[in-house]
Amino acid sequence: MSAPARILIVDDHPLFVEALQRAILGIFPGTVTREAVSIAAAKTVLAAEPMFDVLLLDLALPGTRSFEGLLELRSLHPSVPIVVVSAYEDPRIVHDVMRYGAAGFISKSADRAEIAAALKDVMDGSLTLPKGYRPPEAPEASEGRGDLADRLKALTPKQLSVLRMLRQGLLNKQIAHELQIEETTVKAHVSEILRKLGVSSRTQAVIEVQRIDFESIIGENHL
């Protein structure tokens, strides 16, 4: 008899997590689910229990911006398929989620049959996308984001943390304090970040990372 599936749900909305758990257990009885309310909490769970079949991730979590959480978890646990489960269904967000290494995207408005089909596809090793999804127009504009995705995937988890703090405007000394490492180590990380992103300054690195900020898309949809 095969072991039950294991799914980690990373979402800070208790009612949605409970509803998703009920849906999962209704579709796949016996499935073991774990919950985390933040990227930091997810990292703790994964450090103790790394053998999950699927990780379901909400993009809008406290303590992280845009696709940073997805990038960090993908870098730390590349063998765990991550499916973004989000209320934001803009095709540009779905497109970028896949470019940044997700195994799929499920809308929070999906019904039980759609969730079942999506999870089955991912656990079978396939990708899953929302029903009716069409890639965004202007592929020439998204091409640059795809190139940036490839470069960001080359960063280590620690380098992603340093880059996130650069984006917040922190100095090397402040980053060293936050990460509890030497300032010389921060400088080494910054040098590697610049090299991997193909830029020559911290400012250029921050400008590049602003291109993955999906909050601007969300804002457009709420005008």
Question: What is the terminal-to-terminal distance?
Answer: 53 Å
CATH superfamily of the largest domain: Response regulator
The biggest sheet, with number of strands, parallel, antiparallel or mixed sense and barrel status, is: 5 strands, parallel
Low-confidence spans: pLDDT under 50, at least 5 residues?
none
- The CATH topology of the largest domain comes to Rossmann fold
Give the helices and strands as they follow along the chain: EHEHEHEHEHHHHHHH
The domain tally reads 2
Based on DSSP secondary structure assignment, what is the total number of beta strands? 5
| Share in β-strands | 5-15%
What's the overall average pLDDT, rounded? 85
